[in-house]
Amino acid sequence: MPRFDAIGFVVDDMESTLEFYRLLGLEFPAEPAGHVETMGPGGIRLMFDTVDVVRSFSTWDQPHGGHRVAIAFVCDSPQDVDATHDRLVAAGHPSTVAPFDAPWGQRYATVADPNGVPVDLFAPLA
Fold first, then answer.
1. Alpha carbons within 13 A on the beta-carbon side of 34
2. What does the pLDDT average to over 1-18?
3. What does R_g of the chain's alpha carbons equal in angstroms?
4. DSSP readout, 4-63?
5. What percent of the chain has pLDDT over 70?
6. Is pTM, for the whole model, over 0.90?
7. Distance between CA 82 and CA 99 in Å, rounded?
8. Longest C-alpha distance within the chain, in Å?
9. CA–CA separation, 89 vs 95, rounded Å?
10. Which residues have a Cβ under 8 Å from the Cβ of 125 and sit 6 or more positions away?
11. Beta-sheet pairing, 71-74 with 35-39
12. Are 99 and 49 in contact (CB under 8 A)?
């Protein structure tokens, strides 16, 4: 039986991508290559491949239009959502949803990674 193991992203710039996700606490090798991965909570791997690597074995084209995937990071508190959002924006990453108290009971915000992938930040509202 197959089992869920990893989430992979195609990235334009490996260095800026890893820098963004390091700001969120993920660890990666100091000398990145065309394929980089890290182990997430629960043993799920998060993988990044450069466009060149993916095109070396497929006919991959840049997607167009809206996103179909977003990833989410749970924060320690509603204040941590705001602080994390502000830290990412100060590092030059665009906010796509400013922090707000969502009707589903979370402090919630979204920042785009260097490839335009939405990264949701959230925490329960007490």
1. 8
2. 89
3. 15
4. --EEEEEES-HHHHHHHHHHTT----SS--SEEEEE-GGG-EEEEEEHHHHHTTS-----
5. 99
6. no
7. 6
8. 48
9. 6
10. 78, 101, 105, 106, 107
11. unpaired
12. no
